[in-house]
Amino acid sequence: MKECKRCLLREAAEDATFENIRERIDRLSPNEKADDELYSRRLDACRNCDHLISGICMKCGCYVEFRAAFRQLKCPNASDRKW
Ligand code: SF4
């Protein structure tokens, strides 16, 4: 994968991986899942963060499009938490 600073996975041309993540998000229960507005706000914050490289948060190693889908999870950057 080409390194792409401040790109989400869907923008880094990793279609198969993104599709796999979408399917896993779709299987989350309503209790686990962030609503659309919260999810979108979180991803906007990630897209403005220097720790985002090609869809992966360099603070935790997660695909942010997956991590942000879990309502109870937080941005892992404890010293400057964006969500
Ligand atoms: S540190 Fe927080 S805001 Fe930055 S990419 Fe990671 S999850 Fe997103």
Q: Overall pLDDT, averaged?
A: 92
> Order of SSEs, N→C?
HHEEH
| Cofactors, ions and other ligands in the entry | iron/sulfur cluster
Query: Treating each run of at least 4 consecutive H or I residues as one helix, how many helices?
Result: 3
How would you write the strand order of the largest sheet? 1-2
Largest sheet data:
2 strands, antiparallel
Radius of gyration (Å): 12 Å
Measured distance between first and last alpha carbons: 27 Å
Spans of at least 5 consecutive residues with low confidence: none
Beta-strand residue fraction: under 5%
Task: Give the total of beta strands.
Answer: 2
> Total domains, how many?
1
- Shape verdict: globular
Query: What is the SS-derived class?
Result: mainly alpha
Keywords:
mainly alpha, 83 residues, binds iron/sulfur cluster, globular
Brief write-up:
The chain has 83 residues and is mainly α. It contains 3 helices and 2 strands; from the N terminus they run H-H-E-E-H.
Task: Write structural notes for this entry.
By secondary structure, the chain is mainly alpha-helical. It has one domain. Helix content is about 35%, strand content about 5%. It contains three helices and two strands, in the order H-H-E-E-H. It has a two-stranded antiparallel sheet. A hairpin with a 2-residue loop joins strand 1 and strand 2. The protein starts with 14 loop residues before the first helix and ends in a 16-residue tail after the last helix. The model has no long low-confidence stretch (mean pLDDT about 90). Iron/sulfur cluster binds next to helix 2. Iron/sulfur cluster (SF4) binds next to helix 2.
